[in-house]
Amino acid sequence: MKLIVLGSGTTVPHPQRASSGFWLETLGGSIMLDFSAPMPFRMAQEGLDWPALDSIWISHFHLDHCGGLAPFLAGTKHAPQMRSRTQPLRIFGPKGIEKLIKGFDAVNDYGLLDQPFPVEIIEVAHNEKFEIVAGVEAVACKTPHTDESLAIRITDRDEKTLVFSADTGFDELIATLANHVDLFILECSFLQNKTKTKHLELAEAIFLIRKSRCKRAMLTHFYAEWDEVDLTKELRAIDARLEVVEATDGLVVDV
Ligand SMILES: [Zn+2]
Ligand SMILES: [Zn+2]
Fold it and tell me: In angstroms, what is the span from residue 59 Cα to ligand 1's centroid?
């Protein structure tokens, strides 16, 4: 798998970090993990093959994770690159994702689902296993953030694995989901003394990373308070042997 970080930030505007979005290339096709408002631009900016995008995963309904979905679907209707496309675009997410898309659509009769190619919306539940792109298995796992929030574990055809926590409070279940994965993408909204229980701070993230025994981890979803922090230095002080990388927009990681 190959991961390209498109947005390592939050809902708060930031000059270097777009809100949440990751492009994942698997042996079965391409997947967007979350789709915030800047994502249509960020995919194009990174030169990614967005007209051939196979699947989208929406972790929850906060706009810094799904706000680009309706504008993207409005765009694909008019994109010359997509006129001859026949392969379906599959959108996976928690229960309510269909209502969300249709709700956007109803506001102005955009015809978001009336595309040159089929659009399939698939709602998944906690513990549900599903095929996210051809031959690539996924399983969803609830997280303590909003009622609908889900983390996802993806297993590529070559058995490489990745977990994306999206937004979450502290719960050891996420470490269980990420057991021995090749890449564990975990939110780390705060350095310390977190002001919101439904996000993580560094010590909690490190606890979950250690508990998961993942091969490598990536921290993301950084609020501006991280701007003054040298994460590499913080991590070295905790445990120099831990393989943890800081997500930055544009970073490419081979999994
Ligand atoms: Zn968020
Ligand atoms: Zn959220």
Answer: 10
Mean pLDDT by 10 residues, the chain (255 residues): 98 97 98 98 98 98 98 96 96 98 94 96 98 98 98 98 98 98 98 94 97 98 95 90 95 98
Instruction: List, in sequence order, the alpha helices (H) in the chain.
Output: 39-45, 63-66, 69-78, 97-108, 172-177, 202-212, 231-238
CA 43, 46, 51, 54 torsion-angle sign? negative
What is the domain-level CATH number for residue 172?
3.60.15.10
pTM: 0.97
83 CA to centre of ligand 2 in angstroms:
34
253: in domain: no
Provide the edge-to-edge strand list for the sheet that holds 129-133. Answer: 129-133, 136-142, 150-155, 161-164, 183-187, 217-220, 244-246
Number of folded domains that form the chain: 1
In the reported structure, the alpha carbon of residue 60 is separated from the centroid of ligand 2 by a whole-number distance in angstroms of 7
The number of the ligand nearest the C-alpha atom of 149 reads 2
Closest ligand to residue 189's CA: 1
Ligand of minimum distance to the alpha carbon of 11? 1
